[in-house]
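User: Fold this; C-alpha cells only.

Assistant: Input:
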Amino acid sequence: MTPSGDFIKGGEDCLYLNIYVPQRKSWGLMPTLVYLHGGVFQFSTLEGNEQDYLMDHGVIFVTVAYRVGMLGFLSTGDEVVPGNMGLKDQALALKWIHANIRFFGGDPNRVTLVGVSSGASSVHYHYLSKQARGLFHAGMSFSGTALNPWAMAKNSNDKAKAIARLVKCPTDNSTSMISCLKEKPAYFLADLQTSLMPWNLHEPAPFAPVVEKPSKTAFIDRQPIDILDSGDVYDVPWLTGVVSEEGIFTVGEFAFNETALKQLNDDWADLAPHLLDYDFTVAEERKAVVAKRIREHYFLNEPIDKSNVRSLIHMLAARAQARANRAPVWLYYYNYRGMDSTSHVLTKSRVNLGVCHTDDVMLVLGNKMIKPAKTDRDFDMHKQMMQMWLSVARTGLHISHTLAHIFNLNITLRAPGKKEWHDFSPFLARVCLCSPAKETYGL
C-alpha cells in the first residue's frame, strides 16, 4: 500500500513476486537477478519497468513487492513493533526464491540482488543482516547504501507517536498506541504518513530501517557502521556507485515550477528542516540558524529561483552523499548523459541539468516513459552497462578486460579518518586491477 499522487494504491497484503523467464529453454540453469525497487522506503516504484532487454541474455528477472511506509517501517523502538518489516519481507522473498527458482529454470547458487535508491540501500542491508546469508551470491547497489543519511530512521518512536496523535490514539505506551492504530483503516494511515513530508514527497523518508533491540528476529541490532567495523558482513561481491547529479531527483519536480520555488524561497526557514532531513535531529531553537547558514553557503543569500536551480541540486546532492562518501566500497561514478533522462520526466522539461538519479539503471531496464537507447552512443553505453550486470549475475564480480577499459573504475574516493575500501572488501582489491580507460563513457 503506497501513496500515489492524490490516492492510495495497493493493500496490506504486499509481499508478491513477479518472475520473468526467457522463452528459450536451452540456457541450462540460469542466473537470477532479484530487483528491489526504490521509493525512499515510502512508495512502490515497480510499475513501468521493462525487463525485455534482460530476457535476451539468459537471465531470470524477479521483482519484489514488499511493505513500505508505515506498514513496512514503522517502529516503536521496542518489542511491540521493532520495525524493518519491509526488509524482513525481502529476506522471506529471498528464502522462497532460493528454494523454488530451480522450478523456473534458475540456478539457486547464482542469485544476485539488485537495487536502486532505497532498494540499493536494502541490498546493502542484506550484507549486514544474518537473515539472508547464503541466499544470494552477489549484489549491486545503484545510488544507495545503508550509510546514506536517509537509509536509517531517526527518532522512529516520535514519528509513530506523531501519527498516533493525528488519529487521537494514546501515546503513553507502545501497546495501547499500536492497538489503537490497528483499528484504523490501512489506507487512512498510509495517507497520513505524508503529513510527515509536508512540502514534497521526495523529502527524506519518515519511515525507514532502524536498529532493533537484540532478539532472534532482529534484522539488524547494531548501527551499520559498527557492523562494518566489526567485519561481521556477508562476504560476497558487491558493486556500488552513484551518478553525478543525484540531487536532480529531489529538485526535479519543482526545478521549473515558479510557484514552488517562490514558496521555498519565502518559507525557507520552515521548509529546510524537512527538505534536508534535520527536522528530528536539530533542536527547535537552532533550526532557523541552521537554515540561514545553509542558505548563505549554497545561495549566497540570493533569492531561490530558476537562475540558481543548479545550486539547489548541488545542495541536495551533498545531503544525499554526506554519509555515502564513507561507504565501505567505492566502485564507480557515473556521468554519462543519454538522450533521455529521468530528469525529463521529473521537470517536464528537456533542459540538461546533468545525470539524474536512476539514469544508470534506466539505461539497462528502461520503463514506459524512458527507453534505454535512442542514439548509437546510448546503445553502446547500454551494451556496456548490460555487460556489467550480466557479469555480476553470471560470475559474481568478474570484470572482463574489455569492460575494465570502458569502465574506468574509480577506487580513489576516501573519507578522512575512515578505513580504506580494501579494509572492508578484500575481494575488490582483486577485481579492481584495471588499466586506464582509453575512452571513458563517464564512470
